[in-house]
Amino acid sequence: MHGSIMLFLWTFPVLVGLGNYLVPLMIGARDMAFPRLNAVSFWMIPIVGILMIASFFVPGGPSQSGWWAYPPVSLQNPTGNLINGQFLWLLAVAISGVSSIMGAVNFVTTIFRMRAPGMTWFRTPAFVWSVLAAQLIQLYGLPALTAGAVMLLLDLTVGTSFFAPERGGNPILYQHFFWFYSHPAVYVMVLPVFGIFSEVLPVHARKPLFGYRVIAVSSVLITGISALVWVHHMFASATPGWMRMLFMVTTMLVGVPTGIKVFGWVATIWGGKIRLTTPMLFALGAIVNFVFAGVTGIMLGSVPLDIHVNNTYFVVGHFHYVIYGTIVLGIYAGLYHWFPKITGRLYYEGLGKLHFVLTFLGTALCFVPMHAAGLMGMPRRVASYDPEFALWNVMASLGGFLLGMSTLPFILNVVSSWILGEKSGDNPWRAIGLEWLTSSPPPVENFEEIPTVISPPYGYGSNEPLVAAHATASPTNSESLIE
Amino acid sequence: MKLRAIVTLAVLAVLLGFFSLWVAQQSYSWMPPEAAAEAKLFDDLFSIFVGLGTFVLLGVTIPILYSLLFHRAGKYDSSDGPPIEGNTTLEVIWTIVPILLVLGLSTASYRTYQKMAIRGPMELVHLHMPQMVEPAYAEPFDDSPQREIRTALETAPIEEIDVTAKQWAWVFHYPDGDVTSTELHLPVDRRIRLSLRSEDVLHGFYVPAFRLKQDIVPNHTIDFEFTPIRTGTYRLRDSMFSGTYFAANQADVVVQPVEDYRQWLADAATQPPTPAYNRAAEEYDRLSEQAVVRGWKSVSPAPAPMVNYAPKQKPSSPPA
Ligand code: HEM
Ligand SMILES: [Cu+2]
Q1: A450 in a domain, yes or no?
Q2: What CA–CA distance (Å, rounded) separates B110 from A303?
Q3: Nearest chain B Cα to A289, which residue?
Q4: Angle between helices A241-253 and A255-269 (to 10 degrees)
Q5: Structural domain of B105
Q6: Residue B247 belongs to some domain of the structure
């Protein structure tokens, strides 16, 4: 349940929200292409939330089969009630699938059709590229998950036999449906965060994004490759040797486009005029964490290594390093970076830095010990652990506590500076980008007049205007209100 | 300035190389004992990944820290950095290097996999290929001289054992003597072939000291082979979430010299079946006795298995 709620009700909605807000601003559009579709898709999320939370109160309690909901365990219904926790969970997943498909159609259409005049593909910000890449994944992947969830629901309620072994079904088939989407899903979450890095680093290092075109295109490469790796979650699930080897190679290949991005980011800040602002700290911390997670990811991709650590705390450590260490830190980077845009006020740097230090240390303390416990052989999803693993578990709990504390300065910062913070002006970072041309916070329709783009997005140091003169003042000569 | 940076980086790279090697050596100590030939193969491969991984991780982190220290803008400096948009040579290099790296790692993994010769489950026809097992002994290892094992391997028959997993117990059946047990006894230095079966849901056969794991799928029989090389008692766990009490679904694995193993089999064969200790059933009963039942309803555990050899207590092996 923790997994489902965190993914479906926290990470996804926050990222989608950020995308919804930023994409139109960055491409010079007044809104998303289909505002009504957007609203329907949005209002389905609270329904998903209500279903998931309601499942705690039905007889028999919530779904007990983890976020995978693998049959046959997920089909065992100890209470015998028709309306049980697993039923509500599956319904929630199916609805959330439909909602996200609608959202994806909207994003893709918006990015294809509504870019400002003059904004060719290679003048489109890397963040927009990465949102596009992520939403394309939703379009091809989600139908599989949604179909799998519906079939499982039918098995559970009306006794069909897609996956139920005692009726001749094949439980492994469900795993294919599940992972065909749920592996790419991790990229749906991480790609926009890559986009955030690509926006934040040039602004705070005052240097163009190094290898912008390659970074932009590698997002789409990731979309492609991530469609072909799902079996790496099933190396131990009765998967034949040839399939193991094939998916081992495709999995490792994911390291190539991601590696290109990381090198590009490092080269971006190299030799720049770095300002150590809170978003910069979060972005760099997240990149380091991501490299660590990528290293353990490649280990998991190697079949002989995965056979030992699969379903142990090593995997739990790996994906928390991605989801918390990279995605959550990256989201914080984005929130601080665009905070003046959203609110028109400056946040407090001191609190922001405190937040960063606590978060970074908490992540390491909470999730590094999990790798050690996993190598020793501690399985995941256990309710009790053997004394052997106690040391690692106590460390992880301390780290978890630290992470809990770390959100306090964040909340304090957001609330107090939203109300009392210094006015930021329209463009406190002197950043280049359409979103910084309009006022902060932006008017309802985003732009008074749609700008015409005349150059690529990261012209730091070269003094070229981004948009044609008749539009709003060019950012290079707008005043700096910070520092 | 530029030269200084290059020299500094070169020196750091060499130091980093040595440091990564050292970390790779350390990685052996992060694991339980190497109780199977496959465990040794795992540890060697893992060490390579750890070494390269350390190099890559620090290879990215150090330049970031270097920039943060030396490329900071002064307090009142509002100028921009140089407008460098890219560098084709560099970009080509850092595309090719990762490609070579992952191909190398895939090849190393493939070769290790071949040596382990873990049978692809569901391949119903198996050829016996001792040459695939042999390289596992290419390097001498501590406990026993390698030649002896090799001959033993070539001449000894494969030891076949049926394994049944259920919610929540393991039952081992030895066709040789028709013995059942809830403790898995194995002869050392023999190729073992398990036939894995599940009576209900997915389970996972996992012995960390062997570094081996295989999910068990209802309605299928999955063959699984390996070679224990170190006597001792190790822990078998259920690695696939199989319901409320799955954490309690553990058993001892006793690896013993062949003579002891034969003796154990012979003794067990004379014992009448008795109910075995079952931790899941015990925990379930304890919970349902409580006046107020906390927690959510669970599938009830299968009755304690009736076996010839039934340890009356919890597994006593070191938990790893
Ligand atoms: C880029 C962001 C990434 C995210 C968000 C991510 C996320 C995850 C998650 C959530 C899981 C666990 C799934 C589960 O078992 O419940 C996982 C497992 C795995 N990840 Fe990643 N990962 C990322 C990067 C990578 C990379 C770069 C690789 C390798 C190239 C990788 C390889 C794996 C493998 C092989 C597993 C399966 C391990 C197992 O269950 O045995 N991941 N990842
Ligand atoms: Cu994956």
Answers
A1: no
A2: 8
A3: B57
A4: 20
A5: 2-67+90-116
A6: yes
State how many domains chain B has: 2
Interface test with B, best of A55, A73, A123 (most B CBs within 10 A): A73
- The per-residue pLDDT for range B60-88, each reduced to its tens digit, is 999 999 899 888 887 777 788 888 888 88
Same domain, B163 and B295: yes
Q: Note whether B303 and B163 are same-domain residues.
A: yes
Distance A397 CA to ligand 2 centre (A): 26
Task: Supply the mean pLDDT for chain B.
Answer: 80
Answer whether residue B41 is part of any domain: yes
User: Taking CB atoms and a 6 Å cutoff, what residues make up the pocket around ligand 1?
Assistant: A 186, 189-190, 232-233, 251-252, 254-255, 258, 293-294, 297-298, 300-301, 306, 310, 315, 318-319, 322-323
Averaged pLDDT for residues B264-270? 88
> Hey, what are A365's tokens?
């303390």
Residues 6+ apart with CB under 8 A from A292: A321, A325, B57
ipTM of the complex in this document? 0.88
> Which residue's alpha carbon is nearest to atom 11 within ligand 1?
A319
pLDDT bracket for residue A478 (50, 70, 90):
very low
DSSP A238: S
Q: What is the CATH number of the domain that holds B258?
A: 2.60.40.420
Q: What's the pLDDT score for residue A263? A: 94
B215 and B282 assigned to the same domain: yes
In this prediction the pTM is 0.88
Residue A147 lies in domain? 1-182
Strands B169-174 and B179-181 turn out to be antiparallel
Q: pLDDT tens, A245-301?
A: 999 999 999 999 999 999 999 999 988 889 999 999 999 999 999 999 999 999 999
Number of domains in chain A: 1
- pLDDT of A477 reads 41
Clarify whether residues B107 and B169 are in a common domain: no
> Quick check: A343 pLDDT over 70?
yes
Residue A46 counted as domain residue? yes
Could you tell me which residues come within 8 angstroms of residue B276 by beta carbon, excluding any fewer than 6 positions away? Answer: B169, B182, B304, B305, B306, B307, B310, B311, B312
With CA atoms as reference, the chain A residue closest to B1 would be A271
